[in-house]
Design goal:
Number of strands: 16
Strand content: 15-25%
Number of helices: 10
Radius of gyration: 20 Å
Order of helices and strands: HEEEEHEHEHHHEEEEEHEHHEEHEE
Helix content: 25-40%
Distance between the termini: 40 Å
Amino acid sequence: MSGGAVEARHAWIEPGVFEVAPGVHRIPLPLPNDGLRAVNAYAIEDDGGLVLIDSGWALDEARDQLESALGEIGYGFEDIRRFLVTHVHRDHYTLAVALRRTFGSRISLGAGEQPSLEAILEGNQEVEAERLRRWGAADLLAKLAEAYGGKAPKTRSPYELPDEWLDGKVEVPLASRTLLAVPTPGHTAGHVVFLDSASSLMFSGDHVLPHITPSIGVEPARPELPLRDYLDSLRLVQSYPDMRLLPAHGPVGGSSHGRVAELLQHHEERLEQTAGAVRDGAGTAYEAALALGWTRRNRKFLDMDLFNQVLAVGETDAHLEVLVTRGVLTATTDDSGIREYALA
């Protein structure tokens, strides 16, 4: 990809406020890493106030950038009446919590996020450790202990419970439009997308992204088959009319149906590659992850940072378990709790 193409691909991260439909504004907000560079919050003008879909990460830079963008369209934080949050990850949820503490806006979140959010609030990290042991990733567990083993100074949690749980498929009536909240588990168990059928807009959160595939099941209360849930949710989105994609990461536009078809094809190819890793001798999720290439650049597992290595092993486990349900692989758990796979 040429330098100009790379720059165009990332033009969406530039600060500002961009009207993407009448009364709907995209506001990119910065993230503290080089992977996902920004997250889109969407401000919907609604009877003299605002409803925001997703909020950004609770960082001073993001808060300042959001305040500046809202000011450009004549609003302030006090005008945000409600946050509709697609899922509980901190780049979508925590700035809403921080602003609610001062301005009292309401937060709505998918009910499927409740177990993970409660686990976050309890601060139990042992669940992740147990998973890494089961995936055969003791090396990563040791590296995590070395990197994060020291006790951080206590600060107020960026998380709190929402004001409202969106339970199942529900209409969200606003003054200017009616949105439909549709549960789309997979990226997280409680992920929802918001459909504006009258305007043919899909606020897709991380469920459908234009340039990347979202991580699967990165959450404390990880379901048994997050990839199966994700594939089912993609097919569910296909059952609605084709809409214009308003993603959390990446530029606006494009066909929701077209991108869903690409994502489904990607995961079928990835399932074949994962089965191939087991065919070539990988026995655990960790060993299979080591054998696979990662990202669009087909990077080696060991060339990625520790955080993305952990994501990669969890992603591999999700694919392995779907292969078991399809009868391609068998799985057993040894006396030490490690999950091992073989061709069926």
